[in-house]
Design goal:
Layout: E1 2-3, H1 6-14, H2 18-28, E2 34-36, H3 38-49, H4 57-69, E3 73-75, H5 78-90, E4 94-96, E5 99-101, H6 105-120, E6 128-129, E7 141-142
Parallel strand pairs: 1-2, 2-3, 6-7
Antiparallel strand pairs: 4-5
């Protein structure tokens, strides 16, 4: 197994530097399993949704689905990524002090990783606490 960091994954997805993108593409085409950690996935999503790239919900979903469909791409928890993607797509807009917002994919990943970690530890999941009003729309979140 090999792992990639955020800038390698971004070069592959964005193809914004021809030389680096080609190297990244070849790396992903090897027979090795390629680990995309939760941190790398979250940083990639934050970068893609930032001012420079402005990716929307459907574009992000397409990126994550594409990664999930690749035979050699692995995640810390494929189940958590899949569940987070579904929760993100199903999240309803919430009125907040800064306008109408929707829980982001990173929020959904945090909640789903917590649920799965509790399950693997044979412990009851009792919620993910947050002050983020949009994230509170996700099943399993709680506020203090």
């Amino acid at each position: 197994m090999i792992a990639v960091d955020t800038n390698v994954l971004l070069r592959r997805l964005l193809n914004d530097d021809a030389t680096q993108a080609e190297k990244a593409r070849r790396l992903f085409e090897t027979q090795e399993s390629v680990l995309v950690t939760d941190v790398v996935l979250a940083e990639t999503i934050w970068t893609l949704t930032g001012k420079r790239y402005g990716a929307g919900k459907q574009e992000l979903a397409a990126v994550v689905m594409g990664l999930l469909e690749e035979h050699n791409v692995v995640f810390e928890s494929r189940q958590a990524v899949w569940s987070a993607l579904n929760d993100y797509l199903d999240a309803l807009p919430v009125k907040t002090a800064s306008g109408v917002r929707t829980a982001d994919l990173a929020d959904a990943l945090v909640v789903n990783k917590a649920k799965i970690t509790a399950q693997h530890r044979n412990e009851q999941y009792r919620g993910t606490y947050t002050y983020d009003q949009a994230a509170l729309a996700l099943d399993g979140t709680k506020t203090l």
